[in-house]
Design brief:
The structure is a homodimer of 189-residue chains.
Chain A: E1 2-7, E2 12-20, E3 26-35, H1 42-60, E4 64-68, H2 76-95, E5 100-103, H3 105-113, H4 120-131, H5 140-155, H6 173-188
Parallel strand pairs in A: 1-4, 4-5
Antiparallel strand pairs in A: 1-2, 2-3
Helix pairs in contact in A: 1-2, 3-5, 3-6, 4-5
Amino acid sequence: VRILGVDPGLTRCGLGVIEAGRSRSVSLVDVTVARSATHDEVPARLKAIADAFDAALDEHRPDAVALERVFAQQNVRTVMGTAQISGVVMVTAARRGIPVALYTPSEVKAAVTGNGRADKAQVGFMVAKLLGLQAIPGPADAADALAIAIAHAWRGGVNTVTADAAGTGHATAAQRRWADAEKAARKRG
Amino acid sequence: VRILGVDPGLTRCGLGVIEAGRSRSVSLVDVTVARSATHDEVPARLKAIADAFDAALDEHRPDAVALERVFAQQNVRTVMGTAQISGVVMVTAARRGIPVALYTPSEVKAAVTGNGRADKAQVGFMVAKLLGLQAIPGPADAADALAIAIAHAWRGGVNTVTADAAGTGHATAAQRRWADAEKAARKRG
């Protein structure tokens, strides 16, 4: 299952593609950060990001798009651009018939690190570890986009802890921590 | 000059098309309210509105799109959907090479009624009067979309008060009130 994770933003928009297999295995396919020039008008900036998103869909043909859910409570100066990008991403995916799943930042952090309040460094560290990368992908938007994709791979039902590759139903301690963190994140909604 | 005014919204999105001529003359071309089903997922809802906006562009080939500027300070429950629609509208227009102008609600009210704090009824009344309509277009989203288009016709430089049709440079009392209201709205930013 190929998943395109999107960390939406008007200045920088992270686009991370992973392949999710059995037993929670995830591997990196591609990661880029689309950018727009801050001195451009907003329509041109949105178009720059939209074009990059379209190109990623064309190139990687994902089965699903996972997108960070935007809250109006966040930084007022950036939240409108982020919401606008989210709208563009959702419409583009809907027109191609690709399902879109939304995750809150704390759901993503909980899925990837086991802690819904993990900091950026911890998320980047775990993303690199889980994907078997030598270094943390940068900038933070790149690591975040991959984290969102991983969160979807695990929460979206590609594999559950009790249906692992060996079919034994036994989970490792780390898997149990993840499962508990995911449950806690779900309860918080 | 043909102008498509958009009152952005996820549940109801007003789309008002006017033709702006000399001496501040404006006439109605078409007005519709695009809707999406509240029980649908957000991507499908955005797509329903986006499809209606595309259809309006195809049918009316406007020279400009005028869009209400969204503020994060507004109702938090509706602002995210409104921002998402705005993003979709701006990208779609940008991809077609159509300029997009943004106006705050108070700029629109000041342009159409002379009062930046006018209520919905007053805006609807003036929209009907200015377009020579027998009745106020409904629902409010329809009248608002037309008001946004009219605001662009007058503020966007189609005609200015001092360059009227007769070329006399004389403004009527009503035109002076409009001009003053516009200046005041600009100062408030």
